[in-house]
Write a structure and sequence with these properties.
By secondary structure, this protein is of the alpha/beta class. Helix content is 29%, strand content 21%. The longest helix is centred in the first third of the chain and has 17 residues, at 47-63. It binds adenosine-5-diphosphoribose.
Length: 229
């Protein structure tokens, strides 16, 4: 049976594709207070601002292309069963060719009903406006997990992490829970790699290797090594 590689990715893997990370920006997120644009309260207070904020993110996302880091992870599927658990809402992993991606924090190119979270829709272009309704007539919102909201796919991610034969963390400051705790579910004997030019503080544990490099270079090298095993 193929070995399973589980990857936890964060904003840093998309940095070289031109998508800004979160914590490199002084608490501001593309010029906005995170709490104003990424919380249910922010949406209630000023839905137009929040919709417009995500419209801009979608416009940027459409221009971005997967980089060598995303491509290296996709290539690992030649030999491994690869599951990517990403905190990113962009679709660059999928566009690079990865076939099993779990979006812990939602997906930029999907909308969902404000009345019924199970009503989720693929978006055609970049724009979501006030007055865009679900099939039951309620306003649509971005299909993003905002601060203060539950992370429904966390249980699935934990199950995958517990079954990993190899675990890779890339481009995340590990500042946001529950995602940041995923490595705690990985068995001691499993090789663990952290790829980040400015690696986050990770508790010392067995079989941990830090690769202090950007995602493009670090993951390309790591994938070559793993494919050669
Ligand atoms: N390659 C790899 N890593 C990089 C690169 C790069 N080229 N450039 C920056 N990084 C690293 C930074 O060193 C940092 O450790 O990416 C990490 C980015 O951290 P954050 O900005 O905190 O992003 P992330 O961990 O994904 O944030 C988690 O917070 O705001 C929320 O919901 C949002 O999903 C997001 C969550």
């Amino acid at each position: 049976m193929r070995k399973k590689i589980v990857v936890l990715s964060g904003a840093g893997i998309s940095a070289e594709s031109g998508i800004a990370t979160f914590r490199d920006a002084d608490g501001l997120w593309e010029g906005h207070d995170v709490m104003a644009v990424a919380t249910p309260e922010g949406f209630e207070k000023d839905p137009e601002l929040v919709l417009e904020f995500y419209n801009q993110r979608r416009k940027n996302g459409l221009q971005a292309k997967p980089n060598a880091g995303h491509l290296a992870l996709a290539k690992l599927e030649q030999k491994y069963n690869v599951v990517i658990v990403t905190q990113n809402v962009d679709n660059l992993h999928e566009r690079a060719g990865s076939t099993h991606v779990i979006h812990l924090h939602g997906e930029l190119f999907k909308s969902r009903s404000t009345a019924d979270p199970s009503l989720v829709y693929d978006m055609e272009g970049w724009e979501l406006k006030l007055g865009d309704h679900c099939e039951k007539g309620s306003q649509l919102r971005p299909n993003i997990v905002w601060f203060g909201e539950a992370v429904p796919l966390m249980d699935t991610a934990v199950m995958e992490a517990a079954l990993a034969d190899i675990f890779i963390v890339v481009g995340t400051s590990l500042a946001v829970y529950p995602a940041a705790g995923l490595m705690d579910y990985v068995a001691d004997e499993v090789p663990k790699y952290v790829v980040d030019p400015n690696p986050p503080p990770v508790r010392k544990r067995p079989n941990l290797q830090l690769i202090a490099d950007k995602a493009s270079a670090g993951l390309t090298r790591l994938a070559e090594e793993l494919l050669a095993l």
